[in-house]
Specification:
There is one protein chain. With 352 residues, the chain is of the alpha+beta class. Among the domains are: 86 residues, no CATH class; 132 residues, no CATH class. Helix content is 48%, strand content 15%. The strands form five sheets. It has a three-stranded antiparallel β-sheet with strand order 2-12-11, covered by helices on one side. Strand 11 and strand 12 form a beta hairpin. Helix 4 packs antiparallel against helix 10.
Length: 352
């Protein structure tokens, strides 16, 4: 009786130690067996071996797997032995990277194209000189296929039939003037510059004066350019500038083919003014934006592919460790012929 009880206590003690070691991955102890799922009796010898010395260690680190997939999609899957699965992620990432890289190169080329086109066909001096070209209520003699009233209607405030002054806009052209940054929407600063460039007296801007006429008095573009250069003029041709000259009517006078203007509908019952060169410029920018969107999609897919690869690696790692976990079972079977009533005990150990 005492011997049987002692055996039972000893068996439970050994089993408890083994289970505790298996659940502690941080200590990296794993039981080695002669064969997978092989049953062993209590009398069989059990060897305790450090997991780090076992070739092809079965435990897979969740942290490593997610880190690998985060660095390079598919690498975590390769770490788990899922070569085909990992290859799919790697190929998708390579394709997305190629789309991102090639379209960024193409976009930069198109950006240079539209910048060069604007420099050739839009001019600040021309814009200053011709801004009030459509200011008179009656056509002073310009030859257009479209009626003067319809053209002029694009440049006026329809509520009070007021022609917007060159600085009366929320959008502006920015430039350097005598070492300072100036905005064309700044009335106090730009009014003086405009009058200097166009040789206009301030009385011309007095609506109550009989000689009110905001139109530029200089016809020679080179004279306006010369004054601008003498004052250190440098145009700030940034993204907003190129965005503005393609779509806002207050910039239209700067195009070099306004004599070929035409009106079109923007699609929301809003009439806009266009010229062939402005339209060509807009087409280049539209192409640039389309390519840039493709590049962005390639970059976004790279991020998505990494995220999916990390999540996939997480579930694969859990599935792997669950499948290859050590299983221990202590079976006690009865024997009525034995005084203790216990016929024996069986410790079952196995991988998955």
């Amino acid at each position: 009786m005492k011997f049987g009880s002692s055996c039972l206590i000893l068996s439970i003690f050994i089993s408890s130690i083994l289970l505790g070691n298996i659940s502690s991955i941080e200590n990296k102890f794993i039981y080695s067996l002669l064969s997978s799922n092989q049953d062993t009796t209590f009398k069989d010898s059990i060897t305790l071996v450090s997991g780090s010395n076992i070739p092809g260690e079965k435990f897979k680190s969740l942290g490593k797997t997610m880190l690998y997939s985060g660095i390079l999609p598919g690498l975590g899957q390769v770490y788990l032995g899922k070569w085909e699965r990992g290859l799919i992620y790697l190929v998708l990432d390579a394709v997305a990277a190629g789309v991102w890289y090639q379209n960024n190169i193409r976009a930069e080329a198109r950006k240079k194209d539209y910048q060069s086109y604007a420099a050739d066909h839009w001019d600040f001096a021309l814009w200053v000189r011709d801004y009030y070209k459509w200011w008179p209520e009656n056509n002073p003699g310009y030859d257009y296929d479209t009626s003067w009233v319809e053209i002029r209607d694009v440049f006026i405030n329809k509520e009070n039939d007021y022609y917007f002054d060159i600085w009366d806009h929320s959008h502006s052209i920015d430039f350097d003037w005598q070492g300072d940054k100036v905005s064309s929407s700044d009335y106090e600063e730009f009014k003086d510059i405009y009058t200097e460039l166009c040789a206009i007296s301030l009385s011309q801007f007095d609506p109550l004066a009989n000689n009110y006429d905001p139109q530029c008095n200089i016809d020679d573009i080179e004279d306006i350019r010369r004054v601008a250069i003498e004052n250190g003029f440098v145009l700030d041709n940034d993204f907003h500038f190129h965005e503005g000259i393609q779509k806002y009517p207050n910039y239209f006078a700067g195009w070099d083919d306004t004599d070929r203007l035409y009106l079109t509908n923007s699609g929301n019952n809003n009439t806009i003014i266009r010229s062939p060169n402005q339209t060509a410029f807009q087409n280049i920018r539209t192409d640039y934006n389309r390519i840039k969107i493709l590049a962005g999609r390639g970059g976004n897919f790279m991020l998505i592919n990494r995220f999916v690869s990390v999540i996939d690696a997480l579930f694969l790692t859990k599935k792997w460790n669950s499948k290859h976990a050590v299983k221990l079972n202590l079976d006690i079977y009865p024997d009525l012929r034995n005084k203790s009533g216990i016929g024996g005990m069986k410790l079952i150990m196995g991988w998955g």
